[in-house]
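Please review this one.

:::
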Amino acid sequence: MSDAPAFRRGGTHRNAGKPIDPQENRMEKWQVFSRLKLALALYNTPPWLLTADRLAEFEPRYARQLLLESRIVARAAPLGLRATENDIRAVVADLDQRLDHAALQPRQLAAIGLDAKGLYQAMTHEVLLDKVLEHVAQQAPAPTPVEVAQWYADHRDKFMRPEQRECSHILLTVDEDQPGCEPDRAAHRIAVLHQSLRRDAGDFARLAQRHSECPTALDGGNLGWVSRGLLYASLDKILFNLPARHISDVVTSPMGLHILYCRDIRPAAPIPREEAMNAVETRLRAKARQDYQRQWLESLARDDRPPPAAR
């Protein structure tokens, strides 16, 4: 949460500043991890640094989370789902994505029981959670062709391909400390190139290969098809006011000095219907999966009974 306070050692909670001992609390490794994961998600703070007020708010939510996760994982065996060695290693490798908190160090995790062995046990639980939830999501009803067509008809304005420009550029960097790149020298060099290109823009690729200091020089300065907002603002403004097959004046960006060449223009146009319908089906399928999974979890949290089977 963005409004989480900055906690320091010696806070109001008796455990502030030091990890909770999982043995003292008789917690399994997955419970230690779930506690840490939930505290970071809610407060962006590990549980041992929560203030007394935050901790009082946190504990009931944590208890509900443990109950729900226990019920989810209990579904794994009846469904024939298991955590393989490769599955566990993969989630251990991606642990930073599950614990999005740069301040946590391996020694801190080890202090709460999440050393290599503890993490392996906790990640076994995480794999089973993921597999059961994915299995549930797969039971969601797929959108029908009629539903896809109706959603497309109701949101046709969302399926426009923006105007694009096919362009190339020449870049000369400016650096006081690099011989030949001093501001006056770079300005003179690019002015000579610009004068040459005004006479013959067809020579752009050759001159870019020879003089440009951007990696795109290998491809004649080619930037491909560009939409608005992808380049620096100074370049973007100039490029989207250039006619096709015209070069720009010299333009300055944080990278240095540029000459732009607009090779072609692709006007804004509707996305082809087949492409749009595929995008709609993907969107509706993802929403159906999310909704079905949420309903299943709500039912599981209420009374341990899954919802009716999907149609």
User: Anything to note?
Assistant: Residues 145-158+272-303 form one domain. The chain is about 50% helix and 10% strand. The CA atoms of residues 54 and 254 lie 45 Å apart.
